[in-house]
Amino acid sequence: MSSIITSLPLTSLIQQLRSGELRSVEVTTTYLDAIADRDAALGAFVHVDREDALQQAADADARRSAGQANGLLAGVPVAIKDVLCVTGQPATCASRMLKGFVPPYDATAITKLKQAGAVLVGRTNMDEFAMGSSGENSAFGPTRNPWDPERIPGGSSSGSAVAVAARLAPLALGSDTGGSIRQPASLCGIVGLKPTYGRVSRYGLIAYASSLDQIGPFATDVVGAAILLEAISGHDPRDSTSVNLPVPAHSQSVDQPLAGLRIGVPVEHFAEGLDAEVERTVREALAVYKSLGAELKEIHLPHTKYAVATYYLIATSEASSNLARYDGVHYGHRAEEFGGSLISMYEASRGEGFGDEVKRRIMLGVFALSAGYADKYYTKALQVRRLIRGDFDAAFQEVDVIAGPVTPTAAFKLGEKTSDPLSMYLSDIYTISANLAGIPGISIPCGFTSTGLPIGLQLQAAPFEEERLLRVARMFERETEWHLRQPASTL
Amino acid sequence: MSYDVIIGLEVHVQLQTQTKIFCGCSTAFNPDHPNVQTCPVCLGLPGALPVLNRHGFQLAVKTALGLNCQIASFTKWDRKQYFYPDLPKGYQISQFDLPFSHDGHVDVETTSESGDKSIRRVRILRAHMEEDAGKNMHDESGRGRDSKVDLNRAGTPLVEIVTQPDLRSAEEARRFLEELKLLLTYLGVSDCNMQEGSLRCDANVNLHIHQPDGSRVATPIVEVKNLNSFRFTEQAILFEVQRQWDEFQRTGIKLGDKGGHKATRGYNPDRGETYILREKEEAADYRYFPDPDLVPVLVTETQLAAIRSEMCEPPAPRRERFHADYQLTPYDAAVIIDQGRLFADYFEAVAKTCGDGKQAANWITQDVLRETKQRDQSIAEFAIRPEVLGTLLGQINQKRITIKSAREVFGDLLTEFDETAAIPAASRIDEIVTTKGLAIVEDTGAIDAAITAVLGRNAKAVADFKEGNQKAIGALIGQVMREVKGADPQTVREKIIAAMQ
Known about the structure:
The structure holds 2 protein chains of 2 kinds.
Chain A: H1 2-6, H2 10-19, H3 24-42, E1 45-47, H4 50-65, E2 77-81, H5 108-115, E3 119-124, H6 158-165, E4 171-176, H7 182-188, E5 191-194, E6 214-219, H8 222-232, H9 250-253, E7 262-266, H10 276-291, E8 295-299, H11 307-322, H12 342-353, H13 356-369, H14 375-398, E9 401-405, H15 421-425, H16 432-437, E10 441-448, E11 454-461, H17 466-479
Chain B: E1 3-14, H1 54-66, E2 70-71, E3 74-75, E4 78-81, E5 91-94, E6 101-111, E7 117-131, E8 135-137, E9 148-150, E10 157-163, H2 170-187, E11 199-210, E12 216-218, E13 222-227, H3 230-251, E14 263-268, E15 273-279, E16 289-290, E17 297-298, H4 301-310, H5 315-326, H6 330-338, H7 341-354, H8 357-375, H9 386-397, H10 403-420, H11 427-436, H12 444-457, H13 459-466, H14 472-483, H15 489-500
Parallel strand pairs in B: 13-14
Antiparallel strand pairs in B: 1-10, 1-11, 2-6, 3-17, 4-5, 4-16, 6-7, 7-10, 8-9, 11-12, 11-13, 14-15
């Protein structure tokens, strides 16, 4: 029974909740039971309040019974990355630094989810403060890939991707700063979308790199991602960088295919370092589009080679500032023992609270912003960022979307890259540019390796072209069945 | 050897907004209830984001326009990063390389030792906006208890005004601050309440010492921080001038020498001394960078014109205009302007109603100022409204009543207010004048008749007068005046003399 409910496509789940065929309490119980049964082996969740989730579900059922207006996601469980603030629920960013911190307010995306009637089913594991590409940098321990528990699920939204891939939640929210939604979605065989910068309010998203962070959806299929995106999008006066544009009804438009589609294939995304099996699979996906009448055009994104360096200067500079507030004074971790001076309290608290990768990035960022170095590093990176954005602007003059791989390889083994940060950073090489340019990107399942690991196809569009992006993604999904495969443990 | 004193000021002014610069919390001064005027944004909670208070920005622009600054058409927000418990985000949102305004000036009238007055133009390098920090409160019991942090003030909008080193004495520095306070309170951008920390000052001081060969040598620059009264600013600078002179005599250390770097000092008003806070071997590295949570602000000419149109006339040009329009002496103009905008408005209303600026200035700088001070009232609370006083003074000008009678009416109006608490209307003037028979009688027939009668009854006095006893005339005038109330004494005097001759 449980796998019948958890294997339902989101549209069917919504429809059955709407018709009364299923009650939210029943659905939520099923997912809570699945979490209780199977998550110990996966580590996708860091906090689940069963009673609270069931209460939300009962409330959704009661609203439906009373014939009250019901939102887009009425009664649907959604897992939340531990980086989003929800009133009364702990928010730790998987860091010792924020142990015990309970926000007194809701992120705007959470407010919108609540208005849509969603049931917040639990908080998901992640790389500490969203810094990482494997899910291994968590104070709660690593998350495991449901397709192979010896392998990483990707990161930083590791828990959200695994929750959806392992059918522990039908939907999840993640955040994407350099690929943190698309990369784990790809490695876990599900759909993950990073919206245009400014499409979804960042209010209540605990910042890693403010000019790059965006909240986005995980789902098992494109339609699910479209519905969740529609629910959380929109202008927010609390976020000065949120853009005042109408929210398209993705749930209505996603099934409409596009005629005369021009797809750009960036040469730079099929270069050295790309695994042969991944390349072959992605090219086969492109052939599917060709068979649907799309035109494939080779394009150039000439500044791609600078993207990783640019990203690691801008993101770490902003992070060094954003994480300065975790000083042990007002909330979060404070060292028990310190020398007694203010400075030693800061040093001891931050030294104990942050993990290695976070410290590494703070140090890099502090260095990049220091007097005498800021011009050489931070300011230079901003200039290159404009060039990268220019590459995309030029490309979108010629094509409607850009397609290519999400990651250079399928999921690697736990511990394989933890001692080599640079090779870890390169796993985001194809996703980082979208954050630097502020454009939307989506990862959809497009095949498997010979060892049965998922491979994703990345599609990117011009700013605020999420509607086009989703329709193009859905065109592929209708022709293929990769998104229907589930890890054996979930069946 | 002689020296020049070189002073530049950095002044922090809290803007008079209802809410904070980046959130909706109240800016009310509330030290007795710490941390109640806070929200996720000004507490710096994870995930919270700032949104600019547009009204606060407009007040800042108004401030800069009052300082004769250029307003940048593009400005942005930067993070100034340092760790301190009263700074909950670990950075202050401020403005670094593109402040919203720059290059202005304030003219200050100064008096030299010989008493000569002159104008010192103090150039403003820049004025930028930033958020205030909270307040740390340390245990003063000596028992080493934990310090506490109050974040009510965190996020209050500030304008930091940085002058060029154009001030040449402690007195000039105080005069500059007084003029600045007058300007800002005039413009209504700040209450400049120094007790509540609405205006705080840092002074950069050093000496340029004249050498026998004609060259000059600079002493190390000292920044005296957190001066919270005009008097302390003046005292701290005076102390610092003497200290630097003594130090130079003793050591000969110049700015830039080893041991001659810029230093930061505090001021202890109880001891009247400055004391070392820290010596800057290197400037602190605040790692400024543009705040990615905020968008740049564009200021158009249309917006500037709208702000200008809302601005009242600043005190300096108003002083000039009072001199030109109402023929006031510079002294009277200054006395009136320095009482504040509402007081000057009161003067202008009276002057316009009565048509005589000098008369209005006399009454206002004497009678009105005396009465408001005695009653501990602001001009807004004063019972005699400007149109009433203007009407009263107008009657003097029109020779309908005498100055003496006007004073009597003025006193009666105040007495009536004290008894009834009702603001008197202008119509009460005529009523009092009529009741008391204070109107100047221009009916010369009545005066002539009274004089004939009085002279007829006082043959002795007339004879005395004719013999040259001028005193006798006083008694005669008094008798005529008693018969013809409101007669102009001057007229009566002239007529009596004419009649006797």
